[in-house]
Amino acid sequence: MIRDGSISWGMNTELGMSDRMEFYHEPIMGAEILSYLQPIEGKQIFDGTLGGGGHTELFLREGAHVIGCDQDGGAIEHATRRLAAYEDRFLPVRGNFSEMNSLLAGVGVDAVDGVLLDLGVSSRQLDDISRGFSFRGEAELDMRMDDRAAFTAKELVNEWSEEELIRIFRDYGEERRAVRAAREIVAARKVKPIETTTDLVEVVGRAIPRVGPKNPATRVFQAVRIAVNRELEALQTALEESLKVLSPGGVLAVITFHSLEDRMVKQFMHRRSNPFLDRPEWPEPRENPDYAFTQPSRRAISPSEEEVASNPRARSAKLRVAVRV
Hints:
Elements: E1 2-3, H1 17-20, H2 30-37, E2 44-47, H3 54-61, E3 65-70, H4 73-82, E4 90-94, H5 100-106, E5 112-118, E6 121-122, H6 123-127, H7 153-159, H8 162-171, H9 178-191, H10 197-207, H11 218-229, H12 231-245, E7 246-256, H13 259-272, E8 276-277, E9 286-287, E10 293-294, H14 305-310, E11 318-324
Parallel strand pairs: 1-6, 2-3, 2-5, 3-4, 5-7
Antiparallel strand pairs: 7-11, 8-9, 10-11
Helix pairs in contact: 8-9, 8-11, 9-10, 12-13
């Protein structure tokens, strides 16, 4: 759910948010990503989730050229400043990674040697309370990863039907009390609009009791964010788009943070990495028309215990890798 490592705000509490964002730790699973993508001199890497620029900087340090993509204009500005020293080896492009084929074509790149997708909300977005992704402070219910988009979390929470809310809370948040949460939201908004993050936390808290340290609204916030940004639809498209842009031997690496994303990536890679299909009623196996990848490991790779200890935000991360045939 959270990517790009963690933030160190330093000792100066007078720093503005843009300044605080400069203090990034190492990106999640950086060593593993380098091991699989091998971003040596001469290679082109598409980082579809630029965020704070942590993974991109790792690639640049190794000598690769990187096209860094993000739909968040603030991320593009931040990474452009952070990575200015790498000059023309770093090329930022603003857009959704689901459009990677057209974005690359637009900058004159036909194919790349690696694609990285580090899914979920970035640390920059989460730690900027004004973006409305977090319940750690009060802000308008926004949750747009791309501020050019018109649809916000406030509109979703106040306008979608009870049935639609139940569906996303169940499907995107895997919330067992989806019905209670949706009904409470619908009842509350009849009295007054739900406009801020604290409004939503308060309403959900009346439907879902707190058990342990986890905020009862956690899964609802996740579901709303995914729906507002159409994250699963974008991921499905991006996986298919990777087939168009990866050179033979090129590597697709995807970091996920919850089971919905991981299941989608797992099924895509497994379906595309079997050269033959077999069924009991067939006399012999048949060639798989979707065969496009090999997998170094069919199991997800998890961060080390040391990384989780130093960066708790990595604890739910899973990495899956496939190599274009």
